[in-house]
Amino acid sequence: MTRPPAASGAAGPGAYVLGVDSGGSGLRVALGRVELPGPLATTLCAEPVRTGPGGIDAGHLLDQLLPAARELLDRAAASATDDAPTGEVAALAIGAAGMATLGDRLRSELPGALADALGVRRLALAADAVTAYAGAVGQRPGAVVAGGTGMIALGTDLMEWHRADGWGHLLGDSGGGAWIGRAGLDAAMRAHDGRRGGSPALLDRLRAVFGPAEALPGLLYPRSDRPAVLASFAPEVAACAGADPVAAGILRQAAGHIAEAAAAVCPTFAGTEAEAGEGGEVALTGGLFKMGEPLIAPLREELAQLLPGARVTTAAGDPLTGALRIARALAAGDLRLPRHPTMLFVPQEHGGGQRGGTAVRDEPRTG
Amino acid sequence: MTRPPAASGAAGPGAYVLGVDSGGSGLRVALGRVELPGPLATTLCAEPVRTGPGGIDAGHLLDQLLPAARELLDRAAASATDDAPTGEVAALAIGAAGMATLGDRLRSELPGALADALGVRRLALAADAVTAYAGAVGQRPGAVVAGGTGMIALGTDLMEWHRADGWGHLLGDSGGGAWIGRAGLDAAMRAHDGRRGGSPALLDRLRAVFGPAEALPGLLYPRSDRPAVLASFAPEVAACAGADPVAAGILRQAAGHIAEAAAAVCPTFAGTEAEAGEGGEVALTGGLFKMGEPLIAPLREELAQLLPGARVTTAAGDPLTGALRIARALAAGDLRLPRHPTMLFVPQEHGGGQRGGTAVRDEPRTG
């Protein structure tokens, strides 16, 4: 089929790309140039995008994204010293928490709206785990474990995505921050009750952080951010792990769960256990791993058992960096991460800068 | 000190007692006679008593309790065939979920209000675990495990109460319905992801009950009754336990947790483990144990290990029966269960039937 020249091939020199990360702490936007590494500038819109009955609110996202993007573009144009940039936004990638299940409105409304408002020609709408992958691993095969309050593992052989866990604090997120904090508080309450498995050290920490143990249910259950409250206790578990065998056992169990999730999604190893040979890359990313050695040391051991030969790395880039990478790959016509209707949605291309411009078919996936 | 004769000693023949059980499914009221065993009649007010910022709403409880009690008294008077009852309510006992932490308004408002409205002379306000104890064990030393969506163990040597767990689905309730259901759903999601520890049988049950696995988070998390949703899956775990080792392992672990809680509170054994000799009574009560042998068989084994010699019984009476028993013991002046400011609160006695009657000191605890 024939294509209008404006929409085909790689973007021209001087074109911009935008990466967006939408999560619980707000909307972060990064501006970059197609041919330069790294972001030129980033900005934060501190109000998290609303989720309504129809899913993530596309209008609310645009209300924050468009002024932020325009300001970044204006600043870049004013300070550009090399060959004058065109001002064109060749590609934009948005990673959002809940994109897979709550992203229907984004997928239906954003392509037209962003073409109209910013002249965006190429767009990617990604699950936040995919931008975490792109930030931490890039466009190579491998696996990422994104850990924070929750925990999800995502892997790809560049043919398809494999996901494990990330099911939230009541159905999984095993080994994540809320899981570790909850296990620590359980051990503290066991000590309070005189039940087996209790940790007096963790009970001391519970009292120091929350007050009397018997008052904790009354503090926790009325909150709407219960997983975050649980996760706030995870660093206390890590702090006790050096001297307290119960705390160390919790982190060992968490490490086991994280390794199980990584093993389920890592290419080469997916579905098999303890197979020798050349391993893939497993990148650890997110606030969970700021806990450091008390968690990472047992995790390296568990991964060595389940995925012998795998290279364990700590994240090269965050999800915002990943979104910018995806945008740059889209603009350059070499997106190698697998497209997917909800995980990594790349809609049909819009004519750049032409309001109501002709939509053309997206180019076939490059290998 | 001297007492007005009306308030001293045991209640006269023909006097009534009332037992009340306030929980998530409403307010149940039982009417009995001091000198006769069992209830004469019971009734259910289906609207659960509201909990507000000040705790359990005393006015809302009275709005339901008073008409129900008057109707029971009228019916009893009309159908009485023996020596004419006096119509006097010698004692009333209320067991309520949340009484210990949310019962301040009940403790301050009910004694006067019930003396004024029903002429109640003696009142007990008990945690629902205490009425469960009274129903299942009576006034003997022992321990009760009350299991439903949650799980709590309560024991007494008749000197003081010992409580273990009952901390809710995020801090404990280990081995209860929500705990078992959650563990079952975790194993199902593991099978879905290809993680270690998964159960294809439980994944089949998840799909049969809730639909596609990946849609379950969207069904569960918006609900306000998440623990009940989790607990609704517990019978599926029990149904799979005969053929599925993962499901059987979950029930074995639940049995271990329940036995740990019982061991922490059972007199003779409290604080010690696996000591030979004459054991106390451990009564199992509540909907959890309707699961039957898949849970009770491993529980008997775990209890035999942690509390060798303990007699394990299934509940003789429910919490409503327990409330009526406490009321009858109060009326007869032989309440042997230990009083406690929040677990089993027995306020100063009000002059029977005298509006604004003189409050006198409660009699000393009988041994």
TrEMBL record, chains A, B:
Residues 19-291 form the ATPase BadF/BadG/BcrA/BcrD type domain. SUPFAM superfamilies: Actin-like ATPase domain. It comes from the Bacteria. Residues 344-367 are annotated as: Disordered. This is ATPase. It comes from Streptomyces anulatus (Streptomyces chrysomallus). The lineage of its organism: Bacteria, Bacillati, Actinomycetota, Actinomycetes, Kitasatosporales.
